[in-house]
Write a structure and sequence with these properties.
By secondary structure, the chain is α/β, with parallel strands linked by helices. The protein has 12 helices and 12 strands. The protein has a 10-stranded mixed β-sheet, with helices on both faces. Strands 6-7 form a two-stranded antiparallel sheet. The structure holds 3-isopropylmalic acid and magnesium ion (MG).
Length: 374
């Protein structure tokens, strides 16, 4: 390092736990890591990368999808970069050994990552890739789904099969505290955008939703500058395809957020473009931001794994979110986002976002192109 290092670089020494996982996970994570390392050099901060096993590859290697060393590596890090977990090979294992239920959900729970931010942004260059007509997406689409991630029906008990095997149960439970903290994340996010928040529930049927809505109305008094609306989840699913531009920030519980975020992703053209951040409570003790885990919304895509075809952009944009939310490295984050927009403007497309008949590039070439524009 040169003796020109600016004084503010002192203490900008970060550890990232790198969990490639299954399928295309390692390929897209490798691409994102190359972008991250390039940014660290350019913006004069230092990164320690701590690789760890998760998902099916961990099960194959050590017999569990979430080894305790992996969890420890995550606890010690400033942030976690995750590829994807799961694959057909592991689908018939008992739940606790399956990558999704045995690794991803406990990772979220153990690390306290209750706030999942899933921005769905349509890059202008990809407008024609949207599943919606040009007059519906208009000159762009930019919405944020704030999904509660560690409560609700994913985690409530009782859960399981009855002794006679004739019924099964899952339970949707939310405490006041769980609802309050995610709603605050939603309101604060809306404040940083266009100050519109839509809280999505099923208050015409579910008791947990009625509780949610009641608390939301209460909390809204603290955010008089944010315009709050409530929408039933079935209506929201419909409105997202009818008129997606009416939304800015959507805040909702775990399972509704899972479903609506997949729907929102298609508005942007490809699941291969969507990043996500899963954040815990803000903590100043750790790095300069909030501890979080960052992953693309797409899954492990076993059908194209190992072929060098995967779109790395969602993971690269997730890395920008990591820099912004967990490291406080806003300049590097913005640089990555503009580089991604620039490669798309230049016409580069991986197969998932290439119009029919247009040549596409692979993971490697897309990564190189982003780095060249940083
Ligand atoms: C997601 C995924 C996961 C979820 C699965 C893989 C457990 O669909 O992150 O959206 O349901 O949360
Ligand atoms: Mg999902």
């Amino acid at each position: 390092m040169s003796d020109q290092t600016p004084p503010e670089s002192v203490g900008r020494d970060y550890t990232i736990a790198v969990l490639g996982g299954d399928g295309i996970g390692p390929e897209v994570v490798n691409a994102a890591v190359r972008v991250a390392v390039h940014c660290a050099a350019k913006y004069a901060f230092s990164l320690t990368l701590q690789p760890a096993l998760v998902g099916g590859v961990a099960y194959d290697a050590v017999g569990t999808p979430l080894p305790s060393e992996t969890l420890q590596a995550c606890h010690r890090a400033d942030a976690v970069l995750l590829g994807a977990v799961g694959g057909p090979k592991y689908d018939s294992l008992p739940p606790a050994l399956r990558p999704e239920v045995g690794a991803l959900l406990p990772l979220r729970k153990e690390l306290g990552l209750f706030a999942n931010l899933r921005p769905a942004r349509l890059f202008p260059a990809l407008a024609s890739a949207s599943a919606l007509r040009a007059d519906i997406v208009g000159d762009g689409l930019d919405l944020l789904v704030v999904r509660e991630l560690t409560g609700g029906i994913y985690f409530g008990s009782p859960k399981g099969r009855s002794a006679d095997g004739l019924s099964a149960v899952d339970t949707c439970t939310y405490s006041r505290g769980e609802i309050e903290r995610i709603l605050h994340v939603g309101f604060r996010a809306a404040r940083q955008r266009s100050r519109r928040l839509c809280s999505v529930d099923k208050a015409n049927v579910l008791e947990s939703s009625r509780f949610w809505r009641e608390i939301c109305v209460e909390i809204s008094a603290q955010y008089p500058d944010v315009a709050l609306t409530h929408m039933l989840v079935d209506n929201c699913a419909m409105q997202l395809v009818r008129d997606p531009r009416q939304f800015d920030v959507i805040v909702t519980e775990n399972m509704f957020g899972d479903i609506l975020s997949d729907e929102a992703s298609m508005l942007t053209g490809s699941l291969g473009m969507l990043p996500s951040a899963s954040l815990g409570e803000a903590s100043s003790a750790r790095g300069r931001g909030t501890f979080g885990m960052y992953e693309p919304v797409h899954g492990s895509a076993p059908d194209i794994a190992g072929k060098g075809l995967a779109n790395p952009l969602a993971t690269i944009i997730s890395t920008a979110m990591l820099f912004r939310h967990s490291l406080g490295e806003e300049d590097a984050a913005a640089d990555i986002e503009q580089a991604v927009a620039a490669v798309l403007e230049a016409g580069l497309r991986t197969a998932d976002i290439a119009p029919a008949g247009i040549a596409s590039v692979g993971t490697e070439a897309m990564c190189e192109a982003v780095i060249a524009r940083l």
